Amino acid sequence: MMTEQFRKDVDQGLSMSPKRLPSKYFYDKKGDALFVEIMKLPEYYLTRAEHNIFKTKTQELIELLGFCSSEYLELIELGAGDGTKTLELLNALCKVEYPFEYCPIDISQNALTLLKHDLKDKCPHLNVNPLHGDYFEVLERLKDSNHKKVVLFLGSNIGNLSDEKATDFFLHLGETLNKGDKLLLGVDLIKSKDIVLPAYNDKQGITSDFNLNLLHRINRELDANFEVENFIHRPEYDESTGLAASFLESQRNQTVRINGTGVYTFEKGERIRTEISRKYNDEILSRILEGTGFEIQAKLLDKDDLFADYILELE
Fold this sequence. Notes:
Layout: H1 2-14, E1 19-20, H2 29-40, H3 45-56, H4 58-65, E2 73-78, H5 84-95, E3 100-106, H6 109-122, E4 131-132, H7 135-142, E5 148-153, H8 163-176, E6 182-188, H9 193-199, H10 206-222, E7 231-238, E8 243-250, E9 254-258, E10 262-266, E11 271-276, H11 282-289, E12 294-301, E13 307-314
Parallel strand pairs: 1-11, 2-3, 2-5, 3-4, 5-6
Antiparallel strand pairs: 6-13, 7-8, 8-11, 9-10, 12-13
Helix pairs in contact: 2-10, 3-5, 4-5
């Protein structure tokens, strides 16, 4: 089922003009490992900045999100990854013995398996319920629960969506939640090109490997014949709009076949957009949230004002 959806999405994206591929397919086993490396890179400030918020403002987060001893909460994380930042919050909650269940959701089963194993060592008494699949499919299964929900959507993952699709995301998310449920939204803030662009074009080339790994995955799982060495990683960023994007650029005229799917031609210099990484400010986020039912309740910043975690509530 997942493979067929992957095939359908790849065919649709490579048939478009300009071509594009969904960034969610970065995350196979190798992609997960490469992204863990990326998060440790000196150029990749996003993880460190958000981790700083979780580490230094843990108690403020707990209070703003409504955790207490008298009400059982479901703490749901969309795209949990390795859970490094969330562990700061989980450890603090476990110490005060607040009643809650942690439900990490991820499209990568490998990431969930590693996370559950890691949490068993680091937070042994934590009630963990890992859930594999698409965010909204899983949230639909949780919809009938009577418990209050706190949803974490961290790492500026919302930035992978266009503003219009982000609004649709919040509308859809609101349909799976109840009035009074909260969302902790991590977003990267608009800043200068000399800070942002290196985060997507590190000197070691790990981000390039991460981007190109998507073609390796298509070759392996969909029986394609991409000559990966004929593509290069091309990031760009416009600080006036806050829009960053990553591309794979064809280095020559070429044809690629995906068995059972189709044949796709590339001209020299033609690009496949693999990811957008939107940067935000209060005005942009408020515009996106308008009419979705979510209201901004608070905003927490890291020590260098690079990143923000917004607390939103469904009205």
